[in-house]
Design goal:
By secondary structure, this protein is an alpha/beta fold. The chain contains ten helices and 15 strands. It is globular. The two termini are 36 Å apart.
Length: 332
């Protein structure tokens, strides 16, 4: 295998810039789907893949993979990210008192929600991360995302795309069978991913157009012990050295049960911030999901001895958004 090493021991921890640049160049997909592309690796999902995914439905069981959207959430204000604020603008009390102005006794309730688009279960859009001023497909970041939003790769382009075969890799259960939870700061390697696939069996094979869900167990720990530093603090997650695996498997998207997808603290002694994001979003065009609730799905998959399913995870078509809240569902 050519390209940067997939062994974390080979990382030069004093040179994050060099390690990031090597992987960005090696795994860059710019131009692969044309100069006008707005979907990146979501292009790997085609009609045949969706037909294959639909055939996986055997029981009609639907499992939501979303965390709650309420004030009891993980956000702590970093980059002005707050938890959702839900406000009732019309209530049953108003209806009882007849002050809504409707005829013939009809009443109603209305509400509004205010929240950052990435405060709970969500997709990162292709306009979310830049590399040296470049956005996905080699466009200048300032030409793509302005104060008017993402003018090119807004999340609305993916609204009818993200339905495919989902594959759960329960790395937490495989590597820590006693607890099902990886320790904060644990860097998941290619060897870990492949060992999990081997242990789970043929239904865990990963290939073109699949959406991979990686369960670390961190979300289960936070629900038991409290949020703590879930938002932005130490966490298990993918190692920078998995970038080559993410590229060659030709997966359409990937999501985890953690705040930031990749291992935190990041794997360098020098200053670094989300280096795997910097490689895979603007260079590879990979769609990333974070803060997914994978625990019920993991239990169901383990019980039936099967780890693939039909996955529907459409973003809201928010024009120009660089991310979107979602309620992904696995259909077994």
């Amino acid at each position: 295998m050519s390209g940067p090493s997939e062994n974390p021991a080979d990382l030069d921890r004093a040179d994050p810039a060099g390690e990031i640049a090597a992987r960005a160049e090696a795994f860059r997909n710019w131009g692969r789907w044309g100069d006008d592309d707005v979907l990146g690796t979501l292009n790997f999902i085609d009609a045949a893949k969706r037909v294959e995914a639909a055939a996986l439905v055997q029981h009609g069981e639907v499992i939501s993979l979303a965390q709650a959207f309420d004030t009891d959430g993980p956000q702590k204000g970093w980059r002005r990210r707050t938890n959702p604020v839900h406000t009732m603008t019309d209530t049953g009390t108003d209806a009882e008192r007849g002050n809504q102005g409707f005829p013939h006794g009809i009443g109603g309730a209305d509400d509004v929600i205010a929240m950052p688009l990435q405060c709970s279960t969500q997709w990162d859009g292709l306009g979310h991360i830049f590399d040296h001023g470049n956005a996905w497909n080699g466009r200048r970041a300032g030409d793509v995302v302005t104060s008017d939003g993402d003018l090119v790769t807004g999340i609305e382009h993916a609204a009818s795309v993200i339905v495919s075969r989902g594959v759960l890799l329960d790395v937490g259960r495989h590597l820590a069978p006693d607890t099902g939870e990886l320790a904060d700061g644990y860097a998941i390697t290619v060897a870990d991913l492949e060992a999990t696939i081997a242990a789970q069996g043929p239904s865990s094979r990963v290939g073109r157009g699949d959406i991979v869900l990686v369960r670390t167990g961190q979300y289960a720990r936070t629900r038991r012990d409290g949020w703590g530093d879930y938002a932005g603090g130490p966490a298990p997650g993918l190692s920078l050295t998995t970038a080559g695996w993410l590229h060659r498997t030709e997966i359409a998207a990937i999501a985890t049960d953690t705040w930031g997808f990749e291992v935190r603290p990041n794997e360098f002694d020098a200053a670094a911030f989300q280096p795997l994001h910097q490689v895979v979003i603007p260079n590879m065009g990979l769609t990333i999901g974070e803060m997914w609730n994978l625990d019920s799905l993991a239990d169901a998959c383990a019980a039936r001895g099967r780890w693939d399913f039909l996955l529907s995870a459409a973003p809201l078509p928010i024009t120009g958004a660089v991310g979107s809240p979602i309620n992904p569902v696995a259909i077994l």
